[in-house]
Amino acid sequence: MTMPAILTVFRKEMVDHLRDKRSILISMIYPLMGPLLLGLMFSFAGGTMRVKDAAPLVVPIVHPESAPDLVRFLEESGATIQQLWQDARVLVQGGWAPFALILPDEPAATRQGPLAVQLISNPSRFDSIVATGRVVEMLNTYQKETLRSRLSAAGLPAEVINVLDIKQENIGRAAGPAVIFLTMIPPFMIFTLFTGGVHVALDSTTGERERGAFEPLLMNPVTRFQVLSGKLGAAIAFTLMALAVQGVGFWVMLHSVPRESLGLIAPPGALRLMLVVSVCLPLVVLAAATQLLISSVTRSMKEAQTYLGLLPLIPGLAGMVLALAPVNARPLLAAIPTFGETLLMGQLVRGEGVSWIFIAITALATLVVTGLLLWLGFRLYEREEILFPQ
Amino acid sequence: MIEIRGLTKSFGALRVVEDVSFVARDGEVTGLIGPNGAGKTTMFRLIGTVLRPDRGTTLVDGIDSQADPLAARRRLGVLPDIRALYLRLTAREHLRYFGQLHGIERRELEARITELVATLRMDDFIDRRTKGFSRGQQMKVALGRALVHRPHNIMLDEPTNGLDVATSRAVRELLRRLRDEGRCILLTSHIMQEVSALADRIVVLAEGRIVLQGTPAELRRATGLDDLEEVFMAATQQTASLPALAAGQ
Questions:
Q1: Residue of A nearest to B142 (CA)
Q2: How close A335 comes to chain B (CA, Å)?
Q3: CA B221, CA B66: separation in Å to the nearest integer?
Q4: Which residue among B125, B150, B175 closes a domain?
Q5: Are residue B162 and residue B99 in the same domain, yes or no?
Q6: DSSP state of B113
Q7: Distance, in angstroms, between B246 CA and closest chain A CA?
């Protein structure tokens, strides 16, 4: 029983690259960076959010003596008052305090009109956003309660200050910061599928030509199509391994982070993450086809790495754009390879419903482009120049 | 038998091989020699079907290599100048890979590998990865790779390049044995002494053309020189003065 040539080349490349530290590093270790990074973000952000309920709030105030009622209310609400003598702006800007209140330099007895409260905050810091939110909530409560007692003293019912009775119902799987974090999963996966098999693809084509090993291979009774198909197969297999590693990594991360505090109501399960990987499958072949094409026009590993280092950024851009400016899934968008997949992955990780027609259009469009790239790549490999790397 | 008829090849405006015709017969070692840049490696690539000629044909055991390159390759075993081994594969895995590419059945392939290990004396390193192999070990793996499918026609590009005296001698002995088995052997070299020690017939290339061909005795007679190295120098430097032997008459 003899082995078909494509399978022979595929098997050789798999054995060869499973022994290569760089291939293993890129396809097995690098993909874990996404889940690790996101996990750290979840943990840090979650830790900061937990402070909201647990740790006492320190309220730095300039001239606290000018509003004894407010200070008393804040202390009764659990806050610790810290009198400030120095410049509040410098303090907040330097990160020494998440926020500060500046009250007027005049005694309460002589003041007319509302108390001017200046809140100094730094929204570029996450701890400032959280702490500022807490103090604003306390100030609003103080305002409401003071107003209520004044209305009561005037003989009016307290309900007159309530115009709206707002009740919010979240039907998504995530809210707050968790939504942003989940939206980052598709760009990570797109990046992985364009990098997971890249070393295998390059080393077995451009690298082999550079080392002079391609020529002896072609002097065997095999066609270039068979040789390249086997090598492409190995690159695809390594990309799939990278995606699987990353998928498992995301699953473990999402089920071990402090999710409630971030608003992650129901993290995507294993089946949903498998579905996310499944919608990527046509892109895996597209990535391999792109790598083949680039290897066919580059003369050395260094040259190819220069181009392929930039390549993942292009499809990754779609994910970045969608993370910042979400758009609705429309059939026309499905026809743009990587954009359609990114949209689908976003919908799936957020727990939204997906349209099978959209999936079909996305897969078809990607496969058509892949077919064209493969055709071009195989044609370029038929050139005689391919044998002369230098 | 390898039969070359009017082979011509250019790269852009540069003509590398021009109207080359010769026959490498069964049971003979044919030496293709010439100075650097004479077109020897291009000839190898043309015969090995990785390059396509502009004009002319190559017949390998009667098979037109352009019409049926895969059939021609099945009958060829090639040892290229650059050995280019896979550093993460063992010597045995090399032989197995190339044997499988030739479609040899598994049991038969293992038997042939065992035979090659004994012939090429590879016992010490057959199951070691080829990273760090000496030149001699690399050459043996590359030679084993070229012979694993028992080709009738064997082409060797600078087979003793960089080898020590003992290994060079072992290679020469092996080639004589293969010739005595009736196989067609075509080797290139730019060292006349090596070719004269092995070749039954010599083809001298210069600037892409054949300037001289025949048996060593015929070459000596034609040039009036006893030393084959002198013959080589005369042939490659005075290409126009030897028209009769250039045509293989």
A1: A216
A2: 40
A3: 37
A4: B150
A5: no
A6: H
A7: 29
Strand runs labelled E in chain B: 2-11, 14-24, 29-33, 55-60, 63-64, 76-79, 153-157, 184-189, 201-206, 209-214
Partner-chain contact B106 A387, CB within 8 Å: no
* Closest CA of chain B from A18, distance in Å: 9
User: Mean per-residue pLDDT for A138-158?
Assistant: 87
d(CA A3, nearest CA chain B) in Å: 7
Q: Do B142 and A215 touch (CB under 8 A)?
A: no
CA pair distance A246, A265, nearest whole angstrom: 22
Dist CA A282 CA A242 (whole Å) = 15
Subunit contact B70:A20, Cβ cutoff 8 A? no
Is the Cα torsion angle B143, B145, B150, B154 positive or negative in sign? negative
Beta bridge partners of B68: none
B80, B97, B102 ranked by CB distance to A12: nearest: B97
Distance of alpha carbon B18 from alpha carbon A364, whole angstroms: 50
The minimal CB distance from A20 to the residues B50, B88, B93 is found for: B88
Domain boundaries, chain A: 5-45+174-387, 56-161
Residue of B nearest to A209 (CA): B84
What's the average model confidence in pLDDT over A308-316?
75
How many angstroms from the chain centroid is the CA of residue A240? 20
- Exposed/middle/buried for A96, CB within 10 Å: 0-12, 13-18, 19+? exposed
Mean pLDDT, to the nearest integer, of A89-94?
Answer: 88
Amino acid at B218: E
pLDDT of the residue at B246 = 54
3-class DSSP state of B149: coil
Domain count of the fold of chain B: 2
Task: Please tell me the CATH code under which domain A56-161 is placed.
Answer: 3.40.190
Half-sphere exposure of A196 (CA within 13 A, CB side): 35
Instruction: Pull the structure tokens for residue A386.
Output: 């391919």
Interchain CB distance below 8 Å, A15 and B142 = no
* Residue B55 and residue B24 share a domain: yes
Do B31 and B133 fall into the same domain? no
The pLDDT averaged over each successive group of 10 residues in chain B (249 residues) is: 94 90 95 87 91 94 93 94 90 96 94 92 93 91 93 91 80 90 90 82 90 88 81 69 50
Whole-number pLDDT of residue A133: 85
Is residue A226 a contact partner of residue A6, using CB atoms and an 8 Å limit? yes
Judged by DSSP in three states, A62 sits in strand
- How far apart (Å, rounded) are the C-alpha atoms in residues A190 and A95? 36
Nearest by CB: B105 against A2, A19, A213: A2
Q: Which domain holds residue B105?
A: 85-150
Find the mean pLDDT for residues A268-293.
Answer: 88
User: Which among B80, B101, B105 has CB closest to A222?
Assistant: B101
- Of the candidates A212, A213, A220, the beta carbon closest to that of B102 is on A220
Q: How far apart are CA A356 and CA A351, in angstroms?
A: 15
Q: How many CB pairs under 8 A join A and B?
A: 76
CATH number of the domain within which B192 lies: 3.40.50.300
pLDDT in tens, A13-45: 999 999 999 999 999 999 999 999 988 887 777
Tell me whether residue B80 is in a domain: no
